[in-house]
Amino acid sequence: MSFDPYDFRLQFPALARDDLIYLDNAATTHKPTAVLEAMAQFYRQDNANVHRGAHRLSARATRAFEGARHTLARFLNAPASEEVIFTRGTTESMNLLANSLGQMVLDEGALVLVDAWAHHATIVPWQQAAARTGATLKPIPLDSKGRLDEVAFAELLALGPQVVVLTAISNALGARAPVDRWLPKAQAAGAITVVDGAQAVAHEPVDLQALGCDFYAFSGHKMYGPTGIGVLWGRRDLLDAMPPYQFGGEMIQSVSFERSSFNVLPFKFEAGTPAIAEAIGLGAAANWLMAQDRRAIAAHEQALLSYARERLQSLEGLTLYSAFEDNAGSLAFNVDGEHHQDVGIWLDQAGIAVRCGHHCCQPLMSLLGVRGTCRLSIAGYNHHDEIDALVAALTDYLEFLYDDA
Ligand SMILES: Cc1ncc(COP(=O)(O)O)c(C=O)c1O
């Protein structure tokens, strides 16, 4: 395998230091020079508002902004770039959908399914949409092994849900949902399908035409791109039929004091001045990722995660919640009897950044019977020495506990 995480890491200026082991990539990844430069160059050379500007700077900004949309369509293998809607991130993508699609397809007696490890960014917008329309939100439960329950899913589909939302990769556990097998089942049951790809985009190429979902949402900052930008991709016929989500400039065709008419896709869903530099940065991240050997990065990440799982499993006094072979990106654990925050502070003192808490998945934490966990989450630039350092710091912590006892 040609991939070298140490070489790869050289592309990330924020990691050029020896006092930080960054294992919080599911929260946000670091940014490569290619992304930083694309954004800096926009502000240095081209800064102007997009669309309708008469002057050349605006034309250049528009070309760069719309170019980013085309790049993202290619990155996702989307049928058309007009179906790529820029949002602030997964959360805004889900709010847009729950408001607009929710208004269109939910009413009294309708049903929305979300998986048991859904992020609050999925649960809460759909819960609110259900409350507004008289629909019901139900979770797809976990089975006794902690996977999404296939039998329960079939029973829930038999109830004829209008919308099914699946989280491709759980941010709290790293577990994968069987989207390839389940999306066709949900569609056969008549549901509109939505995939939360917030964690998936960073770890595997996305091919929307192969996947066959109706909507796909993700954030730029978890795939080496900037914060403040993300995407909602949707099937054109559905997006065309949906009402606008926010109102104002850009999203209109004509306005009078009596009435307004609305723009075509994608502008109908992009009210106001967009996050121009961020969209350009996200386009740069997508271009940069497409130029990497993604298969090799994924293999490296998988090897690293297996190694971390084995090493953590060997520690007595530590409970691992992410026990599956096909996890991606993250592993969750607790030191038995210890508050996750205390463990996080200990690790921080050793220069190791992990995330501790409920990971915006409180319902999942209830199912696991915990208030929170510690989560390590990796990216291509992490390496085995960093896992060894984490295990050494946890070993010290356990020794400190047992010495104290
Ligand atoms: C699976 C998943 N969905 C949704 C979100 C929300 O993403 P954002 O905060 O970027 O909108 C996250 C963020 O952690 C996530 O991991």
From TrEMBL:
Pfam families: Aminotran_5. It comes from the Bacteria. PROSITE patterns: AA_TRANSFER_CLASS_5 (PS00595). The keyword Transferase applies. It comes from Ferrimonas gelatinilytica. NCBIfam families: sufS. InterPro entries: Aminotrans_V_dom, Aminotrans_V_PyrdxlP_BS, Cys_dSase_SufS, PyrdxlP-dep_Trfase, PyrdxlP-dep_Trfase_major, PyrdxlP-dep_Trfase_small. Keywords: Pyridoxal phosphate, Transferase. This is Cysteine desulfurase. PANTHER family: CYSTEINE DESULFURASE (PTHR43586), CYSTEINE DESULFURASE 1, CHLOROPLASTIC (PTHR43586:SF8). Its cofactor is pyridoxal 5'-phosphate. SUPFAM superfamilies: PLP-dependent transferases. It is an enzyme of class 2 (transferase). Gene3D superfamilies: Aspartate Aminotransferase, domain 1, Type I PLP-dependent aspartate aminotransferase-like (Major domain). Residues 21-390 form the Aminotransferase class V domain. Belongs to the class-V pyridoxal-phosphate-dependent aminotransferase family. Csd subfamily. It catalyses: (sulfur carrier)-H + L-cysteine = (sulfur carrier)-SH + L-alanine. Catalyzes the removal of elemental sulfur and selenium atoms from L-cysteine, L-cystine, L-selenocysteine, and L-selenocystine to produce L-alanine. Its EC number is 2.8.1.7.
